[in-house]
Amino acid sequence: MTPDARALRIDDYDYSLPDERIARYPLPDRAQAQLLHYREGRIDTHRFAKLPELLPAGTLVIGNQTRVIHARLLFTLPDGRPLEIFCLEPLDPADYARSLGSTEAVEWKCLVGGNRRWKSGRIEARVWVGKLECRLTATRGDRLDNTFRITFSWRADGPLSFGEVLEAAGSIPLPPYLGRPAEAADRDRYQTVFAEQEGSVAAPTAGLHFTPEVMARLREGGSAFRTLTLHVGAGTFKPVTSDTLGDHVMHREYFSVDRALLRTLHDQIAAGRPVVSVGTTSMRCLESLFYFGARLLCGEAAGDSLDQWVASDARFSERDVAPALAALLEHLQQEGRDTFSGYTQLLLTPAVRPRVVDGLITNFHQPRSTLLLLVAAMVGEDWRRIYNHALAHDFRFLSYGDSSLLWRRSAGAE
């Protein structure tokens, strides 16, 4: 009997994670991280460098090309006390590329540390962008739930984009569980080697183990590597505090997929060849594409956003993946668009098997998290065996930790 996603108890996805097992720093060599390989109940241990040998020829590997922005900005209040502004997502213009590329004032949704000390008005910071001195100003606007509308403007002796100012003035927002400030080395190591599109406030950490050499060996072994964009939000660290998922509000994230990748993905699935997602963010985007296409097959508009419970809609369980992706491709052609973009709030749980992804490359996640639920969606109750194995064999956990390659459990395996 298929469980009801809303009734799933978060207590059933808990485990003990000793503090010393959290990796505070990455290994010197990305590809020397341990790799746990799980397939049909069997668990083996390798180095990540061996990944190309573990993939069947003809595998399509899809990573998230998002790039982490320097989202933490430090200002000084008139009374001399520090104040941190954490940039979450653009509001005006409400487009990452346009906002980061803007040379005029922009508005962002932001968290403000110590907001009670900053009631109103403008605050200013002096930064150097290359050889240009820049005066960055932040003006507090209206409250947006637990965040604020902040207007940023800047003055310099030459034209500067907001992305350039942010890169120079801000710092990399490391996950809070690392318990340390960002260091110079994190500017490089908290980015994947294939990061291109700025917009995330957290790295798609499953991709941190890839090197150009590993990617070259993937191609030599007959696999293909493609990318999509999903900008990881701070909500990825949001804990599940309710007893059941029905009371948990899932965060939403912006994604963008070009038509060429959609066509490649459709052809891969239609031919019965495996699709492997690099990370939970890529998987969330890929699974979302199915539901957008399934809407079209049901005679609805594709829309540009998904709610968190869309996977529980019984109408979509009767739809196949390849026709759904074909419908999405036709939709783009009719509209004359080269990309499909929007927001997804999709919550992936063991209540519904993944539809698009056959294999998942991912790190080891926090207990009682939605990311652990996503892992359980892939492997069912074996998630606990996998995590017990990792704990017993000195695997390093969380963002800078070790990796795993998990293949989707067979239908009826549980």
From TrEMBL:
Show the GO MF annotations. S-adenosylmethionine:tRNA ribosyltransferase-isomerase activity
> What InterPro entries does UniProt report for this protein, alphabetically?
QueA, QueA_dom1, QueA_dom2, QueA_sf
Lineage: superkingdom: Bacteria
Which GO annotations describe the biological process of this protein?
A: tRNA queuosine(34) biosynthetic process
Gene3D superfamilies in alphabetical order: QueA-like
* UniProt entry keywords in alphabetical sequence: Cytoplasm, Isomerase, Queuosine biosynthesis, S-adenosyl-L-methionine, Transferase
Name listed for the protein in its UniProt record? S-adenosylmethionine:tRNA ribosyltransferase-isomerase
